[in-house]
Amino acid sequence: MKTKSPYAFGLALSLSLLISIPADVWAAPQAGGQRAGEVSRVIPAVSIARSGKTMTASAKTAVDWQDLVNTQVNARARIALDDGSVLNVGSESSMKVVKHDAGAQQTELELTYGKLRTQAQKIARPDGKFEVRTPAGVAGVVGTDFFVAYDTITNTMNVIAFEGLVKVCNLAGACVLVKAGQMTSVRSGDNSAPLPPQQATLDLLVASSKETDPGGSAGVAGAGVAGAGAHLGVWGTVGIVAGAVGVGLGVGLTRGGGTTRVVGKGGCSPNNPAGC
Description:
The protein has about 280 residues and is mainly β. It has helices at about 5-20, 25, 200-210, 240-250; strands spanning about 35-45, 45-50, 55, 60-65, 65-70, 75-80, 85-90, 95-100, 105-120, 130-135, 135-140, 145-150, 155-165, 165-170, 175-180, 180-185, 200, 250-255, 260-265. The model is unreliable at about 15-30 and about 215-275 (pLDDT under 50).
């Protein structure tokens, strides 16, 4: 009688054990669960949706990859990412941290609706990126500090640069570069390129800053970004105390002809285009 080889028996046993292991053991690890940062400041009510569950956010609450941060009326949240970048989420907003790899300098955020100001660390790696995506387009960091808003009523993405440069593209890949103190917008659905960058007024810069600041006033006077069209192309006279505002916005202020003008860091201004 022919006997089976012990090697054949061992192979058959190994195969049977492999087949019996549940499929989920072999599944690739999910991005969710990897730490991205933590909430550093919050004005209730702010929640974080994670793996089908929703929790109330508070200071020191961890923020992971794939977390969805939602803010209610008059609520705001400040998130400190692990690479030192800061996200200020405005009220009535929904923002997902898709990915934040501090070592590789790879950050992807999604703003479904609402307002978000990012103060990103400078990208030093050639393959690094820091992007905010909306249903209308993508804003990528070339500089450091910018504001993004997406209005679901008008399907419009608005971007303001506070420092450095921001590359703003529509979903088809048409892009513009926005300098400090400028803004642009792009609408989803019509494949139109982003509008040519135009100077933003100081009151608009102040409003967009306060609307995403957890330490600011909940009710900011002045129009939001969605109504910024009437402000474009001019520098209005500002009746505010400019000293504190300049520090918060990362811009300097000069006066000329009775009008307060904004000067971006590095000397970029309408009166000094060479410094841009």
